[in-house]
Amino acid sequence: MEEILDAIIAGAPGDVGHLRVPDFYRGVTLHADEVTMFDGVASGDKDPRKSLHLEEVPTPQPAPGEVLVAVLASGINHNTVWSSIFEPLPTFGFLSRYGKASPHGARHDLPYHVLGSDLAGVVLRCGEGVTPWRPGDEVVAHCLSVELSHPDGHADTMLDPEQRIWGFETNFGGLAELALVKANQLMPKPGHLTWEEAAASGLVNSTAYRQLVSANGARLKQGDTVLIWGASGGLGSYATQLVLNGGATPVCVVSSPEKAEACRRMGAELIIDRSAEGYRFWKDEHTQDQREWRRFGTRLRELTGGEDPDIVFEHPGRETFGASVYVARRGGTIVSCASTSGFQHTYDNRYLWMHLKRIVGTHFANYREAWEANRLIAQGRIHPTLSEVVPLEQTAQAVHVVHRNLHQGKVGVLCLAPREGLGVTDPELRARHETAINRFRTGRVPAAG
Predict the structure, then answer these.
(1) pTM for the whole thing?
(2) Which of 366, 425, 400 is nearest to 160 (CA)?
(3) Could you give the angle at which helices 257-266 and 236-245 cross, rounded to 10 degrees?
(4) Predicted pLDDT at 3
């Protein structure tokens, strides 16, 4: 592994194709025999530091159409949080089903699960039939793993019945020194970014792109008003940029003055600090407070000059969904990609059906959408929202911080990269965007209790 890293750092990544790939590598794992460890514990009290392990595991060999990548950096996403607390169910069920699908899928059904759905790195080995990539190529990966053996996947790969999220529903993910991906997951690494910056955007930027911009999502257009929940977080920070880049107006909902300031640094002007203004959309565990929906809607109109949101960018789920349906304009769209506060959504259907609103579900992005989202990064139109970087050894702590919502933007992880700041091959483009690239770099990951 040291020889591989030396070749990459020396600026000769093409040499890695001639170097021996180690038989074992370090990865962040879950263990199948520990899936009951949090039984009876409330979701918020489950501690990823107890379930996540950093250990050596055997190196998989690339099958036809697959690529083995040396991972320089990765990132923390909410799907790793869900995996680490075994919610809504242990991910080993995904691996078991994949194992029954094909002989190649059987390699993923193991008593350990290597997590992670982001990476920036260098191609080490290519399986049979891989033509677009070769050893030494600098790449980032999107997390769509798809078989494309069924007709439903050919118009939109996200509709393929064998569609999976790599590193969540498959094994050999990116929070590791090596990762196994399908060749069509790879995209060129933006040359003006460091390894850790390039790794930050894959999952969240592509997800936000499909959710907002794509014809499969809300079809964002110039002049739209877009309500963005969690606008300074990993997903919301890319949504905010895409809205601004598309000539629309974001209304950013955050939970602290620090997060409000992060939105201002991105160029947003209309901001609601929901903690400071005391919004409580639930009276108790079973009853929503429609007076709070109305108070929130009034506040939105004060900010927008009387306009309701054309689009509501939803991902908190249970906590906010009723309010989201209520405040969207007549004929507006509520587009949902996740449920970080709970998967059971309750809303008053009168405000949907009588006001002709739409609820659109989106999930990650297809290959073309991911490519377009990465192209915006490479052009310097959208920037990574990396707030902090930790070494691989501190991944469990970083996942715990994201679980507790103590972060801003994305938390990155150095895997093989020995330090931050490496990997830039286009310093001129970087110099033009340095301030924007670094606007989330304001602090350290807290040592949460």
Answers:
(1) 0.94
(2) 366
(3) 30
(4) 94
